[in-house]
User: Fold these one by one.
Assistant:
Number 1:
Amino acid sequence: MTELLTSAQMRAIEAAAIASGMVTGLELMERAGRGVVEAIFEEWPALRAAPQRAVVLCGPGNNGGDGFVVARLLKEWGWEVALFLYGDPARLPPDARTNYLRWCGTGEVRDFLGEIPEGLFDAGPSGDGVVVDALFGTGLARPLDARVRARLAEFRAQGQFCGLHSVAVDMPSGIDSDSGRFLGEDEGWSGVQADLCVTFHRPRVGHFVGEPSVGRLVVKDIGLDGIADRMGRGAACRESTSAADLICRWSGDLRKSGGHKYTHGHALILSGPPGRAGAGRLAARGALRIGAGLVTLGCPPDAMPENAARLDAVMLRPVADGNALAELLVDPRVNAVCLGPGLGTGAREMDLVAAALGDAQRRAVVLDADALTLVARHPELFALLHEACVLTPHAGEFARLFPDIAERLAAPAVTGPAFSRLDATRAAAARAGCVVLFKGPDTVIADPAGRCAVNAALRERAAPWLATAGSGDVLAGFIAGLLARGFSPFDAACTGGWLHVEAARRFGPGLIAEDLPEALSVVFRDLGL
Ligand SMILES: NC(=O)C1=CN([C@@H]2O[C@H](COP(=O)(O)OP(=O)(O)OC[C@H]3O[C@@H](n4cnc5c(N)ncnc54)[C@H](O)[C@@H]3O)[C@@H](O)[C@H]2O)[C@@H](O)CC1
Ligand SMILES: [K+]
């Protein structure tokens, strides 16, 4: 797992490092600037070979301080560097001011809001270059003012037009680093995209949730490793209210070693009426492929012929109503239930949800799709949710289940730190009293105790092919299968989500939902299982 930090945590770690005497703020700034230059050369190796053009935009805080270091180092490489400052140099914080003065010894400081010199964006002597955005980083507290925004957009557009690469220091300016959201009334403003974003020590939450608008993210070490451990994690991270883990692998044991089929659990997937049972079958196949020892599809009696014709390894049982389900659940070996995909939202289905949630054993239950609609509609079902449940809503279902939380998330973010998808998912999990997996390219998983993880399918891990009919049904099945195997609800949701993206990536373009369970075996093999 990679730790995602909030800006408050990052500030606390930096302050602790400085207070301990292990490093000064000025040294950290120098390392940060050096890290940006290294990252530029690593990203575009040709730039290292010959002098180029850099346009560096510095802001009024320490992000601007990093910009002065970058400008100086590139100039030392022989580059042509033009530097623009937004703000009053006399009011720069001390380390930024020191670097401003060092820069003044070698180059000119232009006014960010003043005239843009002719030919500024012409490629450098060797035909290439960068525009470096060091206006605001983790200190952004409010929306950029209109003039700054317009000017930043102009720099970016002209730089892009002239073929210069855009580099953001720490965060593209204008984006809140705790939520990844653009601060301001009109979210989605595209003026702050960056080809490359270079951050320090650990990524921030806002690099992985929201709309980070970053082509590539590089995290540079600035010598802060171990500081949180040395001072006790709790102390360094006390400020945190919304940090999370980025899921970079699975948690729990995915291997099957010895035992018989019942050792690996028995998942029961409930499906809908004839002609609508495909979604349930997809979930069932997902549960089986991910390693549940046994999977049974429970369907209405009149859907038996259709399902019998379509299933082999998945077992089939008629489940007419809630009573029939309760009878099935007398068998303690059935240890995970999944309801929702293609289920329907009538009286039978309401009974099924009530029977699954009201079960005295408090079995693990995944609720998806139609089951979420039922839980949203009927407060008495919502009240039955318990800690062994996993809810897997997409944005629409989330809004039906938690309208006030969704409304808060949809409202424009006007101050930092803004209400984030992490905050929303945490609030939802606390209210529901169970694990919530809030789907999206930036899927967030939270448990009622506040534990939170992000399963990001962004940038190099993008899996656009997952936006296909039935893909969510397979995910529900994956999670049910892992629950059957004994994973905790939180680990099942994290691992199921992670494998879902991996399977899609391994299969690639042309993916349909049926391919997802099949791609798992390749993923498992690659993982050495
Ligand atoms: N925290 C750390 O460990 C390190 C931080 N460094 C850099 O320092 C940055 C954080 O520095 P700061 O805390 O000074 O924050 P910033 O440099 O991001 O900006 C803060 C300044 O901008 C003002 N401001 C905030 N929003 C504004 C808006 N919309 N319009 C106009 N002014 C606005 C604030 O009042 C403050 O003066 C990081 O992003 C990073 O680039 C690095 O030097 C290395 C180490
Ligand atoms: K920036």
Number 2:
Amino acid sequence: MILIDGKKLAAELREELRLEVEELKAKYNKVPGLTVILIGDMAPSQIYVRNKEKSANEVGLKSEVIKYPEEVEEKTVLEKIEELNKNESVSGILVQLPLPKHIDKQKVIETIIPSKDVDGFHPMNVGNLSSGYESSVPCTPLGCYLMIKKIEPNLSGKKAIMVGRSNLNGKPMAQLLLKENCTVTITHSKTKDLKAECLEADIIVAAVGIPELVKADWVKKDAIVIDVGINKTEKGIVGDVAFDEVSKVAKALTPVPGGVGPMTIACLLKNTIDCFKRSQN
Ligand SMILES: Nc1nc(=O)c2c([nH]1)NC[C@@H]1CN(c3ccc(C(=O)N[C@@H](CCC(=O)O)C(=O)O)cc3)C=[N+]21
């Protein structure tokens, strides 16, 4: 079994990005900038934001975090986004989710100018991705995609199954794999026989937030299994895949932690650099 080492792959990607930033700096005399907006003080959000900042610095990006208290008015956030949209030294804008209930998530996402939408959540980017045009691609599925391609460069004709249909992962992941000529199935809570569907698949991407849902007898021998889940349980953080048992049947499997998470952050940096490059043309 191949343990897909997301930590190591993310470090390799960051090194590539670091060199790219050096070249961009030499060419344009400026570096890409990422601005993260963090609302409230949820502990996990703080951790991700700190990791993002650390990685951005390592790669040589300019990074800035704007913090607001939980009670901040929606208008204040939207005006800040408008200002960042116009600011030439900002290449990418990310508003950390989830947001407090009094702030309209869709409004926030749609206020970010698509060319700086490093999350790839703006409807313009969602549409471009599904039409097969150039777009920002959401960081988590992009990271999953790069890991799958490392294991299997030719995905043409493979059966791929998304367990979970979220806008954050399942749907954009399906688009990426469709572009690679996979036959894609998207499953969800109303799917009739999830186990039978999974057993058909050469590639399983699990992102539903149910601890250890995907069992060994759901997985075809030599399937590639990507675990997007991060679930806090009594025995610590576990994914959506029963790691120990599935590792006995899968060809390749991502661990949690140390799999998809680190690649997600590296892909955010990649998206920031890509937004910068497109803005220079
Ligand atoms: N606008 C927006 N975009 C996001 O992409 C976004 C977001 N909001 N809100 C929160 C979620 C969650 N997320 C993670 C990224 C990295 C790790 C990560 O690096 N995890 C490490 C462990 C980290 C640790 O616990 O120290 C790992 O899996 O190995 C986890 C979670 C991005 N998200």
